[in-house]
């Protein structure tokens, strides 16, 4: 099996950490590097958190690059009220001191994509945060996207409500101008005409809930990793209960990785999507699901997913429990949690 080459562009972040763990445990992926953008936490803090995850997973070989530290236009608003002051749920794991890359995240993305185009060996991007880094790549060298395989973006929403305004999801709300540049590129640039952004939005990620019972099962089957997940998600649990009345926490980002690995986990529609960049609805992903605009369908918008199949994958890869073993237990837990 030839692993797909991928760059993970992220803003770690509790759920980013879980997504990185899943990616690093997936043999289908060859992670070339991690680029960090300001989002959940400032980019420098995100770099530190990415290095912590690489340390946990014994993958110090993967380089981490500091990307854009501010949105393109609007003032930066972090999400540390959700993720904690350290970005990992106030877990206060020690810093990992190793090599700092001289190249910026945008430079790494650009030259990697250009090389991919020249060698006809495409590189995909899984974007788990605001799209500022990718927007800068497009502004500086749009032709580099010829080397892009696929773009998976955890962001936006279609028929679900927002999580930082009535209509906007945080990643696109944090830097709506960047998101609009990226979506417009997939509508207008010739090198992107045969590609679509795979929008993994709140319509599907809200269905991926780490409940107390699932967390207990994690700790039972793999105490070392389970307890680490418990430690970084405790703050997240508290936030979700206070903010949304959810017993557990929604873990958005791992679904984007899981979907990239296995497309049967989700389904959706092709549509023209644009991002609102001002006004009351700033950051909203406006999905033309009924083709009013007759525009180029620049996105594949996910609308359905299987929480059980996702959890089986996560338990298999990250916790080492075969799906045949976890299936019946997870079914019982999830049935009980839903009552």
Automatic annotation (TrEMBL):
Organism: Faecalimonas umbilicata
Domain Inosine/uridine-preferring nucleoside hydrolase, chain residue ranges per copy: 6-311
GO MF: purine nucleosidase activity
GO-annotated biological processes: purine nucleoside catabolic process
Signal peptide: none
Identification of the protein by name: Inosine-uridine preferring nucleoside hydrolase
Cellular component GO terms, alphabetical: cytosol
Keywords on record: Glycosidase, Hydrolase
Domain of life assignment: Bacteria
């Amino acid at each position: 099996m030839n692993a797909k080459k991928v760059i993970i562009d992220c803003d770690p972040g509790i759920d980013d950490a879980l997504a990185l763990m899943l990616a690093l445990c997936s043999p289908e992926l060859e992670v070339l590097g991690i680029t960090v953008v300001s989002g959940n936490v400032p980019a420098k803090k995100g770099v530190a958190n990415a290095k912590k995850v690489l340390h946990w997973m014994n993958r110090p070989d993967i380089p981490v690059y500091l990307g854009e530290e501010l949105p393109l236009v609007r003032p930066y608003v972090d999400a540390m009220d959700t993720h904690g002051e350290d970005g990992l749920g106030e877990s206060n794991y020690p810093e990992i001191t190793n090599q700092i890359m001289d190249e910026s995240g945008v430079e790494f993305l650009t030259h990697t994509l250009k090389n991919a185009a020249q060698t006809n060996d495409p590189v995909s991007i899984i974007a788990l945060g605001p799209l500022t880094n990718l927007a800068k790549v497009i502004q500086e060298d749009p032709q580099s996207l010829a080397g892009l395989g696929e773009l998976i973006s955890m962001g936006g929403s279609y028929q679900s409500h927002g999580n930082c305004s009535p209509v906007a999801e945080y990643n696109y709300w944090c830097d709506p101008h960047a998101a609009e540049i990226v979506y417009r590129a997939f509508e207008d640039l010739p090198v992107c005409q045969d590609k679509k952004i795979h929008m993994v939005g709140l319509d599907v990620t809200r269905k991926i809930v780490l409940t107390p019972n699932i967390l207990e099962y994690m700790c039972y089957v793999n105490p070392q990793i389970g307890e680490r997940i418990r430690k970084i998600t405790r703050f997240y649990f508290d936030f979700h209960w206070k903010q949304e009345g959810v017993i557990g926490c929604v873990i958005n980002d791992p679904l984007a990785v899981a979907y990239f690995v296995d497309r049967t986990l989700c389904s959706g529609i092709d549509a023209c999507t644009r991002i609102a960049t001002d006004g009351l609805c700033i950051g909203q992903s406006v999905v033309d699901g009924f083709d009013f605009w007759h525009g180029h369908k620049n996105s594949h918008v996910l609308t359905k997913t299987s929480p059980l199949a996702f959890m089986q994958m996560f338990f298999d890869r990250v916790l080492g429990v075969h799906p045949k073993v976890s299936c019946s237990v997870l079914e019982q837990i999830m049935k009980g949690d839903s009552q």
